[in-house]
User: Which sequence fits this backbone?
């Protein structure tokens, strides 16, 4: 009877040990599954945030380019007129024609311009575009850029008339002289058994191995930088 009792106790002990070991293994496996699931969820969230952040940045950058292009090609006028159809007076920004961005205009003090109907576009010194990936997305990115001083395009005006005594510099309508670039023309050297010539850029001088003389007075002129008013 005692032997049978000892045998039964040993069987119970083995069964208890197996149950405990099984419980521990299940707990370890469950912990691994939970950890892997957490890592997977976090990676998905980070991937989604990265995608949203990149999309928001590109939308903001597109808004800046759009606004700067509108300002550069504007002949002047009030902000609400230049950005007609996009300017939101109640919100103090211009809604981009593409989805995902709003553009704010800053004055010389860095403050947002609030009265677009009464403020001339020339008062805009910088633009700030705030972009989002989709409507309602909390992820936002902002891009800010300064507005060029001229607010338009420039070109170089050349003339064969030195000093522009018989012609008006920058005669294209809407453009005026921004800077005098200096004389330009042709240089030549004719000494000994060779003849050489080269072109002199605005502000340059006839110098070097080929001497320093103009080919003729008809090849000398004046150059001006002409910029949009």
Assistant:
């Amino acid at each position: 009877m005692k032997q049978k009792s000892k045998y039964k106790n040993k069987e119970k002990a083995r069964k208890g040990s197996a149950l405990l070991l099984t419980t521990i293994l299940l707990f370890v496996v469950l912990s691994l599954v939970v950890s892997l699931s957490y890592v997977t969820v976090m990676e998905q969230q980070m991937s989604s945030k990265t995608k949203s952040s990149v999309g928001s940045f590109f939308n903001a950058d597109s808004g800046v380019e759009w606004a700067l292009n509108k300002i550069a090609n504007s002949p002047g006028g009030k902000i609400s007129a230049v950005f007609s159809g996009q300017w939101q007076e109640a919100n103090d920004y211009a809604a981009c024609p593409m989805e995902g961005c709003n553009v704010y205009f800053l004055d010389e003090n860095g403050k947002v311009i609030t009265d677009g109907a009464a403020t001339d576009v020339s008062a805009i010194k910088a633009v700030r575009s705030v972009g989002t990936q989709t409507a309602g997305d909390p992820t936002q990115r902002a891009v800010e850029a300064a507005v060029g001083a001229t607010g338009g395009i420039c070109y170089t005006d050349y003339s064969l008339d030195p000093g522009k005594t018989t012609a008006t510099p920058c005669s294209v309508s809407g453009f005026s002289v921004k800077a005098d670039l200096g004389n330009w023309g042709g240089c030549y050297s004719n000494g000994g058994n060779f003849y050489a010539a080269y072109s002199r850029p605005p502000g340059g001088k006839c110098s070097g191995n080929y001497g320093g003389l103009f080919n003729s007075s008809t090849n000398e002129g004046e150059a001006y930088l002409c910029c949009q008013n």
